[in-house]
Amino acid sequence: MKRTPARSKEATHERIVDVAARAIRSSGYHGTGVADIMKAAGLTHGGFYAHFPSRDALLAEAADRAGFESVQSLQRQAAGSSGPQALQAMIQAYLSRDHMDGVETGCHVAALGSEMPRQAPEVRHAATRRLKETIDLIARQYPDWGQPAAHERALVTLATMVGTIVLARAVDDPKLSDALREAALKHLDPISH
Predict the structure, then answer these.
(1) What is the distance between the alpha carbons of residues 86 and 190, in angstroms, rounded to a whole number?
(2) Which of 54, 104, 145, 148 would be a feasible disulfide site paired with 26, CB 3.0-4.6 Å?
(3) What is the reported pLDDT for 4?
(4) Contact indicator for 134, 71 with CB cutoff of 8 Å
(5) What CA–CA distance (Å, rounded) separates 162 from 181?
(6) Which residues, 6 or more positions from 170, have their beta carbon under 8 angstroms from its beta carbon?
(7) pLDDT-derived band at 21, boundaries 50, 70, 90
(8) How many domains does the chain have?
(9) Considering the domain boundaries, does residue 171 fall inside one?
(10) Apex CA 127: angle with CA 38 and CA 188, to 5°?
(11) Is residue 36 part of a domain?
């Protein structure tokens, strides 16, 4: 089947957003340049404006994609179980060494949270929307979902998970990094509480 120009442009656009979503988590918003993204996508810098009206528009789509991937990852961890078991699976995967080491494919908030206040409103909005989805996904695992207490526990759970990964990535002491993750796992374990 021959590709139509519209499909080809759509596929190229998606490739750019995929590259950008990984790049922002790996290098941060300010460390991610349009020229580098286009080159990594196998394109020339000159073609950028055929796909995006501005750098902020690209960053907003990249933030949305990164957030979408974060939510999907947690949903995959929870699949096949519900309630405390699903929540435990999400927490264990999130606080795993693989997630900690996988900055470019991991949680957008843990990778970019400290940069968010300085981003354009459209970038912040995209990241915030996905963060709200994550909070809701966690809250749905509590038996009292829909009640303020479940929402509050979800907020604290997510804040603890994100903060733990940020700190575990920040330190240069592997034992401290592991201790941070292990303490959070123990504290957040929904089955033993």
Answers:
(1) 9
(2) 104
(3) 64
(4) yes
(5) 11
(6) none
(7) very high
(8) 1
(9) yes
(10) 125
(11) no
**Packing angle of the helix pair 148-170, 174-188 (nearest 10 deg):** 170
SS3 4: coil
Angle 173-179-181 from CA coordinates, rounded to 5°: 105
Q: Could you give the CA distance from residue 188 to residue 141 in angstroms, rounded to a whole number?
A: 13
Domain that holds residue 157: 54-188
| Sequence-distant (≥ 6) Cβ neighbours of residue 28 within 8 angstroms | 111, 112, 115
Contact 172, 78 (CB under 8 A): no
C-beta of residue 96 within 8 angstroms of C-beta of residue 34:
no
CATH code where residue 83 lies: 1.10.357.10
- DSSP secondary structure letter of residue 96: S
* 5 lies in some domain: no
Distance from the first to the final alpha carbon of the chain: 56
Mean pLDDT of 78-106: 93
- Picking from 86, 98, 110, the residue whose alpha carbon sits closest to that of residue 160 is 110
Assess if residue 61 is contained within a domain.
yes
| pLDDT band at 5; cut points 50, 70, 90 | low
